[in-house]
Specification:
Mean pLDDT: 87
Number of helices: 12
Oligomer: single chain
Largest sheet: none
Strand content: under 5%
Low-confidence stretches: 402-408
Shape: elongated
Radius of gyration: 21 Å
Order of helices and strands: HHHHHHHHHHHH
Structural class: mainly alpha
Distance between the termini: 38 Å
Number of strands: 0
Length: 408
Amino acid sequence: MTTATVILVLLVVVALAFDFTNGFHDTANAMATSIATGALKPKTAVLLSGVLNLVGAFLSVEVALTVTNAVVEIQNGDGTPVAGLTGDGGTALLVIVLAGLAGAIVWNLFTWLLSLPSSSTHALFGGLLGATVAGLGWGGVNWAGDGQKIDGLLPKVIVPALASPVIAILVAGLATWLVYRVTAGVAARFTDSGFRWGQIGSASLVSLAHGTNDAQKTMGVITLGLIATGHWTDTENIPFWVKAACALAIALGTYLGGWRIIRTLGKGLVEIAPPQGLSAESSSAAVILVSSHLGLPLSTTHVTTGSVLGTGLGRPGATVRWRVAGRMAVAWVITIPAAAVVGALLWGLAHLLGGGLVGAVVVVAVLAAAAGAMYRRSRTAPVHADNVNDDWHDGSSADAPSRTAVSA
């Protein structure tokens, strides 16, 4: 077994770990409001979301092989790695991607520990950005694309990151206002029941779309590594085992729930009633589907969070916890640079140790140590299915609803 093959195995493991964190980090996007309003029981909600993420991951791999082209130039247009990164059997490319994935995982876990919704996509792009700049220089960044399509860091990542929450706030705010206007005078017990059923459908749609879109990133990263090391040559297709492994990883992560972020989005930003829940989820689904049809890439996390905030603004008399919203906004702003710094530092560490197998093993060891430390820290204020809907007191970022359970 060659050095490149061993590093490839490490990359596959770390890529699936990222996919897992992507799943539990983004469960809140689809299910937080359904859980908060009682439309679905917490464990039922995450099981449904996990199954739909699993199904969605098999529905499309259209852009999987070129997903990293959005921000860095380590691939050609057909998905193959650039020639300069494969002269050593693909080791140089593998170490860059490995460090980038590790940077994304560290940021995902850190924001999870703080109970803050943030974009896993932006974390991945940020980690790859930092590792690529460290390894190839600033010329390795795809800043603005080629003008032929929406591509590049600025038009595909930065601009949507600024626009998506604003669009979602406006759409969800208007939808919520209209819902309360139309149902004024109707007994709450009738409207709440109907809206809860509607929430199940809209939340399911978001879960399916999430699996379809987000699993492709990890599929593409793993397949890129396989092509770079000569273990796969078909640039038109993804190996079935890669599809299956990524689908299972994101589904498992989704099923485990990411309860800390679900709690923040469902209870911490606004107190959500069933009409607001349906408005938030329907608005999120509408904005995501329309943007996909128009070719405008938006962050699911930003859209969903903006929709929840919009329901607070659109409901007469509702209270928005701006302190929580402010923490979310800060996390959004620093996601890409923070993940980039971690990715660059880890690539630098690997390079310092020779850039080969030793460097790759040390990167994985550092990642495992950081993940273990954050997991242990989370045990001091665990959030789980039984306390995720406890009243919010805003005593901390996680609100520490209970210290008695052992689930995450």
